[in-house]
Every structure is written in C-alpha cells, then in structure tokens.
Amino acid sequence: MNKDFKNHIEKSLSKNIRIDGRKNDEFRKITVETGIISTAEGSARVTCGDTEVIVGVKLDIGKPYPDKLDEGVLMTGAELYPLSNPEFESGPPREESIEIARVIDRGIRESGTIDVKKLCIEAGEKVWMINVDIAPINMDGNLIDIGALAVMAALKDTKFPELKDGVPDYKKISKKKLPISKLPIEITILKIGDTFLVDPTYSEEKLTDARLTVAILEDDSLCAMQKGGEEPLTQESIMKMIDIAIKKSKELRKFLA
Q: Is the pLDDT higher at 215 or at 85?
C-alpha cells in the first residue's frame, strides 16, 4: 500500500470524511430478503452497498458429538467465490473465509441463540444438524457483519421438514421454526491511524491497522469478540470500539424485527 495514499486517507478520516463520502460511523444502505432459495429450509439475501451475501440453511439428521449426546449440531461455512471479487481464487478455502465462518459461528454459539437441546430427537442416536452456508455474490468489504446479519435472517426464516418414518421429507415443510431465543448482531470496528470506522469497503479494509468484531445481544451485553489486524489495541481503544459497536448494533437489529 502506497504510504502517501494511506496518509492522505488518514487525514480525510480525521476530518470524518471517507472515500465514498460517508461519515466514519455510517453504514451503507442495507436491504434484507428472506425465503429466496426454494431448495433450502431457510435462506436470506443481504446487501450493504456493493456487498451482497446469500445464506442458505439446510437441516439434516445425524449423530450427535460424543460429548454432547443430547444436543443438535451447528456447522457454519463460508466460500469466497472468484465471481464475487477478482482477488479471490478458486481452490481450497482461503484463510479469510475460514475466519469469517468461525467469527460468525462463535457469535451464535456463545450467545446461546439456538436451544440445541431442543434439536435432539433421540439422545446419543439422532439429532438435527443445522448446516449454514455463507456465499458472497459481490464482495466490497465487511463480510463478517453482513454475513452474520444474513445468517441470523436465514435462521429466523428456517422451518423443519416433516418427518416420515424418521426421515426428513424435504417436499413437505412444516410450520415449526428453529428454537431461537436470542439475536446476536456482529459489528466490526476498523482502526486506521487514530480513527475508528464501521462498515469498511474492501479498499478501506486494505488500510487496516487493527480491527475488533463484537457480538452484541438485545440487552447490549457482549457474547463474543475477535481481534484482527497487525497492530495491538490499548484498553482505551477497545472500550471506544465496543461503545461504537453497541450503538451501531441497534441500527442493524431492526432488520431482524
């Protein structure tokens, strides 16, 4: 990254002006659609500026983990397709896609969003498996926040298939929804120079000194955090970033109402 260009951007950010004209704490326009994939039990499409993410949820029956015999299983994956950004390449999962899936998954698990014990059909033998696939169609930054919002919208949209002789009948979807009790919102704060900003574009992400992703519940309590970037964060910076995240989570939560 050209040092002069980075200095120029830092000066603009210090004046609360970004490349696309937004304020430092301003998200791009967000739209949320659900029920967009007929072959999935739950789905959602979320756009935020030029970032567009589709999430599909599939339900299956399988064996529980040996240490959690009466709990269902959640599996979250993300794939960064070359069609979404020319810098992505085909092949094995990129480190970035693995991190995105793990950070989103952690917010759901640590919050206790889904009552996994209610996914148990027969302890030690049969439980519901929730498979979540995150697929960016167009990637212009902030995949964690937008992906997390799309995942929550898709999970809320999910309905169980009918069981026929203990086997899911995917042609007959019931009205029964997932046992969801909490709605975590993930907000990522970027630190560029001495400035904090939300909803970064892909070009802004390349200037990152440090970042912090915070998963926040309805009562403003925190259920997960993930630090990224090469530079360390002071306690003061972390507290400021958390305050911003809590404030912005209230704006995104309305899209799950």
A: 215
